[in-house]
């Protein structure tokens, strides 16, 4: 991108002290404090342009509209008098809008953003020179405008952090180094724990062959992060002292964009965040943040979002982003770190193009633990806007489900999910206990009720329960209690649909819940998978195969992926392709030897494929784990019990493989 050139210094400065100057650098006096803040407000607006009615609501909220509009006219008139020559006017207006004239040339923060997009090293140096302090750092603002100032300050701090890291990697001349150091120092004056600024200074020391100074800078960073968050610096900071620092940042060569199964929509994965909590403090906080951001972006409907069940496979794994993009078929990845100190939380979020490993956007988010759900929404909105600016924030906010007030209950549910995924009797019992604990803490927590119902359903259909009738009764009770509480929660709706499908056998009713889950969140891999099974149990095998395939595309590394393979094997079986069904089942069991319940399916498929010896060996292994199961047990509890065509074939295979009648 070509460098953007500006002939003069900006007239309006909002970084540090709010000031206004003529081109000859003569300071101008604002007519009123409100006039000064109105100019700053315009400077922070998109295209430095606002509607008159919005300015009236913001600056004269206690006045009737005619009086507010009159006050706005007077303020604009006073601002115009600062520059009598029309050619030097700062502000333009018509009957609907007010704007700053030539904002990129006039306003420091707009020029800052414009130059930052250039990519030219000289432009980045000019950008660094502009940032002399936080947005309106020394300017008093009314309480009702404090949120606006804070949000803009955070936005520009984040961009300054990107600039300082780019400059520190550039291996530039003395001017580059000097301005990089000055910008890093400015950022640290504002926030002693800003690791981007610390990393920049460490790189400069190392590039200048000053390892002792680099170590001292790291020690200063460590002291600051410990004081602020009770945590060590990020791994990327510590790594600078053990790895050579590149002197020139080279652009990665482009590769073909990863192809997603839904190429019409942007594809992305939200990778597990690094939780920089002190040793031993693992309360699933970072997992919860990822869960909610994934759900919010998925429900917006404008993206192809990889399911969290697959993304979690990359936790604590050092896999290059381009490899992740290839493996999952996604173009974008979201990474992040979470750190906490007392009631405070700080998140660093990065959006990366996996095809080039280029960072598209990053930002820091600060808040309190009790405000974390609002922070998650804000992050989802900004990620969405960075990828596709047409997505409205209201769509994400509208789609979110209400979180529980009790954070411990939420953590219990997060802790229970991996156990639910494991698909073993012991882990299912552990998940059930965690969901029950969540309900003790938050009795109206609909998602916990729904997942508990699913646990009881699995106890029934996998023959893990000593009293299937009681488990079925408990399942139905939790479904009934959860239903009015989960109408906007696709995960809970999918769980209830699964429970009804498995334990109650009412596939039509199950599909109602699953269809609503997919209407809210078309990327919900669980809902697609359970829809596949509901279709399958109803004898709708084509629809089942399509749903299983869609679920696999959305969550290719899903811990429950083997369940989809068995679903596809069942479709083969129902169509009379017994050998294909047996081969797929055998391969899936070999990859997941702990799922002994699956030998029942394999024994049936192999028997009808004519592989009697293999079928009887499979049944022997199955009966060692489930000695009480018989033909009668399957007639009563198998989820296909209401599908005569399937059950006739299935029972025939069970008998051939040696399962007794009673």
TrEMBL record:
Pfam families reported for this sequence: BTAD, TPR_19
Low complexity: bias regions: 251-264
Superkingdom, taxonomy of origin: Bacteria
One of the protein's GO biological processes: regulation of DNA-templated transcription
Disordered: annotated segments: 243-264
InterPro entries named among the record's database cross-references: AfsR-DnrI-RedD_regulator, BTAD, Sig_transdc_resp-reg_C-effctor, TPR-like_helical_dom_sf, TPR_rpt, WH-like_DNA-bd_sf
TM annotation in the entry: none
SMART domains: BTAD
Annotated GO MF terms: DNA binding
Xref: Gene3D superfamilies: Tetratricopeptide repeat domain (1.25.40.10), TolB, N-terminal domain (3.40.50.10070), Winged helix-like DNA-binding domain superfamily/Winged helix DNA-binding domain (1.10.10.10)
Annotated SUPFAM superfamilies: C-terminal effector domain of the bipartite response regulators, TPR-like
Every Bacterial transcriptional activator domain range: 107-245
Keywords of the record: TPR repeat
Placement of TPR repeats on the sequence: 525-558
Protein name: Tetratricopeptide repeat protein
UniProt organism field: Oricola cellulosilytica
């Amino acid at each position: 991108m070509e460098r953007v050139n500006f002939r003069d210094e900006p007239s309006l400065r909002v970084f540090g002290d709010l000031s206004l100057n003529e081109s000859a650098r003569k300071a101008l006096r604002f007519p009123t404090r409100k006039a000064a803040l109105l100019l700053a407000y315009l400077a922070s607006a998109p295209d430095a342009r606002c509607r008159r009615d919005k300015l009236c609501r913001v600056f004269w909220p206690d006045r009737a509209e005619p009086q507010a509009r009159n006050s706005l006219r007077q303020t604009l008139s006073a601002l115009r008098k600062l520059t009598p020559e029309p050619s030097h006017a700062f502000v333009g207006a018509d009957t609907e809008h007010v704007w700053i004239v030539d904002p990129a040339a006039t306003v420091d923060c707009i020029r800052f953003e414009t130059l930052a997009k250039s990519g030219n090293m000289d432009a980045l140096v000019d950008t660094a020179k502009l940032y002399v302090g936080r947005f309106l750092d020394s300017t008093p603002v009314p309480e009702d405008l404090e949120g606006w100032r804070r949000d803009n300050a955070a936005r520009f701090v984040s961009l300054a952090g990107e600039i300082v890291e780019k400059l520190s990697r550039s291996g530039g001349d003395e001017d580059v180094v000097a301005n990089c150091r000055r910008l890093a120092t400015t950022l640290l004056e504002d926030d002693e724990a800003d690791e981007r600024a610390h990393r920049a200074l460490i790189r400069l020391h190392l590039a200048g062959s000053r390892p002792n100074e680099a170590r001292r800078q790291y020690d200063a960073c460590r002291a600051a992060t410990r004081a602020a968050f009770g945590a060590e610096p990020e791994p990327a900071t510590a790594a600078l002292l053990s790895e050579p620092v590149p002197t020139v940042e080279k652009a990665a060569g482009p590769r073909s964009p990863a192809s997603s199964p839904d190429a019409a929509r942007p594809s992305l994965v939200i990778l597990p965040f690094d939780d920089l909590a002190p040793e031993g403090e693992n309360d699933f906080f970072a997992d919860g943040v990822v869960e909610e951001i994934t759900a919010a972006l998925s429900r917006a409907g404008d993206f192809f979002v990889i399911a969290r069940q697959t993304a979690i496979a990359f936790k604590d794994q050092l896999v290059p982003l381009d490899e992740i993009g290839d493996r999952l078929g996604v173009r974008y990845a979201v990474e992040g770190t979470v750190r906490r100190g007392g009631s405070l939380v700080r998140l660093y979020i990065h959006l990366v193009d996996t095809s080039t490993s280029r960072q598209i956007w990053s930002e820091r988010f600060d808040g309190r633990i009790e405000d974390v759900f609002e922070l998650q929404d804000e992050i989802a909105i900004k990620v969405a806007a960075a990828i596709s600016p047409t997505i409205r924030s209201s769509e994400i906010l509208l789609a979110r489900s209400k979180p529980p007030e009790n954070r411990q209950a939420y953590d219990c549910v997060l802790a229970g999910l991996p156990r639910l995924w494991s698909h073993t009797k012991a882990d299912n019992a552990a998940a059930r206990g965690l969901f029950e604990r969540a309900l003790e803490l938050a009795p109206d927590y609909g998602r916990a009720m729904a997942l508990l119902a699913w646990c009881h359903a699995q106890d029934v259909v996998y023959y893990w329960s000593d009293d299937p009738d009681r488990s079925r009764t408990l399942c139905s009770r939790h479904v009934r209690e959860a239903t009015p509480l989960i109408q906007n929660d696709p995960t809970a709706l999918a769980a209830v649909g699964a429970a009804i499908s498995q334990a109650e056998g009412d596939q039509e009713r199950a599909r109602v819940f699953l269809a609503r889950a997919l209407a809210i969140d078309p990327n919900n891999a669980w809902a697609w998978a359970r829809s596949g099974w509901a279709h399958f149990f109803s004898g709708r095998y084509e629809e089942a195969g399509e749903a299983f395939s869609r679920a696999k595309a959305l969550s290719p590394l899903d811990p429950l992926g083997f369940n989809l393979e068995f679903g596809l094997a069942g479709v083969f079986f129902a169509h009379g392709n017994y050998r294909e069904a047996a081969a797929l089942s055998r391969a899936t069991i070999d990859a997941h030897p702990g799922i002994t319940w699956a030998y029942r399916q394999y024994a049936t498929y192999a028997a009808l494929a004519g592989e009697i010896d293999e079928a009887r060996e499979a049944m022997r292994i199955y009966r060692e784990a489930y000695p009480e199961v018989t033909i009668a047990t399957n007639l009563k509890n198998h989820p296909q019990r209401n599908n005569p065509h399937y059950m006739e074939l299935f029972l025939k295979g069970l008998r051939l493989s040696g399962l007794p009648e009673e």
